[in-house]
Specification:
By secondary structure, this protein is mostly helical. The chain is built from 14 helices and 4 strands. It is globular and about 70 Å long. The two termini are 45 Å apart.
């Protein structure tokens, strides 16, 4: 009898901790099931390409992959925030092109090279257009699909009007630093920018009240409103952030290429939505993570790069990406049913 309490006192806490650890691991595996499946697919794809294309793992090709995923990855961060609230942004390509063109014209038509002014205008235009999207969706109570589709048409049209369908070439070196220059130890500025933006977005979603509110709005908007969340204000935030990130991506892309084209952002909307969906974020809102989006971005980037290395006809590349998107949505749907 005397030994029973002692045994419970010694072994009890260890058993409880072990049980809690096991439950925590199960919850983690359950929560990130789709992300884990896509990560496994990415690892397998990289392994297969390293065998099929010997130059896949070369330093030059890895830098090329890093460059290719940066612009899409930046916009996909904002797209994730939007989709988590149950919305969608189809205007990202138009915003990128319009912001870059307005900033480029501001920079080149003044007296001298007003690089700082051009960059500032680009960022402000992207933020402003994203803010308009958010206000129309949140306060105008319009469907996000319709608002952003209309904004895509508006920004594409205005880009061609103000540029007279001509590209801006001969960009000054100071403007191109963001897309070509190195920050330190050879690390490109665009890579550093992507890492910082991803870290900020991840902390926002996982460690702050606004992040929890975005999940709550996507899960049940009415319940979030009744809980005291300012739903309208928090629905504006993702669209404004996406517009700003579109401008950043446009600066990096145009700086790298040395020109600002009217069709700079063509296809960005489909690529970013694909990356978000592949990463496990539900199109119904309320479920997903930036970690999954990061995996989706690299999965698409590596797949396209690998198909180019294998000299697969470019017309078939869309089929491959589309198949991956459908498969990832199927995995996510099965995961929701199982949950």
């Amino acid at each position: 009898m005397a030994g029973a309490p002692q045994a419970r006192g010694v072994t009890g806490p260890h058993v409880v901790r072990a049980r809690r650890t096991g439950e925590g691991r199960r919850r983690f595996a359950e929560e990130y099931r789709v992300e884990g499946a896509m990560l496994a697919a990415l690892v397998l794809l990289c392994a297969a390409l390293s065998v099929a294309a010997p130059n896949f793992l070369s330093a030059g090709n890895l830098r090329n992959v890093s460059w290719q995923v940066t612009a899409i990855g930046l916009i996909a961060i904002g797209q994730t925030l939007v989709i988590l609230t149950g919305g969608i942004d189809l205007s990202v390509g138009g915003i990128a092109a319009f912001a870059a063109m307005v900033g480029g014209l501001t920079m080149t038509r003044g007296s001298g090279e007003q690089v700082a002014l051009g960059i500032a205008v680009t960022l402000l235009v992207g933020l402003a257009v994203g803010l308009v999207n958010g206000l129309l969706v949140a306060y105008g109570r319009l469907a996000a699909f319709i608002v952003t589709l209309g904004m895509l048409s508006i920004t594409n049209s205005l880009t061609y009007v103000i540029s007279d369908a001509k590209s801006i070439v001969g960009l000054p070196d100071a403007y191109r630093v963001w897309g070509r220059g190195g920050a330190f130890d050879g690390l490109p500025w665009y890579t550093l920018t992507f890492v910082v933006c991803f870290a900020v977005g991840h902390i926002l979603l996982t460690r702050t009240k606004p992040g929890r509110f975005l999940y709550a709005i996507g899960s049940n908007e009415e319940a979030a409103r009744l809980s005291g969340v300012d739903v309208r204000a928090y629905k504006v935030l993702p669209y404004a952030a996406t517009g700003l990130l579109c401008a950043v991506a446009a600066l990096i892309l145009s700086g790298r290429l040395g020109a600002i084209d009217p069709d700079t952002g063509t296809g960005f909307e489909l690529d970013t939505i694909a990356a978000v969906v592949i990463g496990g974020t539900s199109l119904f809102g309320g479920k997903g993570s930036l970690v999954g989006t990061l995996i989706g971005v690299f999965l698409i980037g590596v797949l396209n790069n690998g198909l180019n290395l294998l000299r697969v006809n470019a017309f078939w590349q869309g089929t491959a990406v589309g198949a991956v998107i459908i498969l990832s949505v199927l995995v996510e749907r099965l995961s929701r049913r199982r949950g």
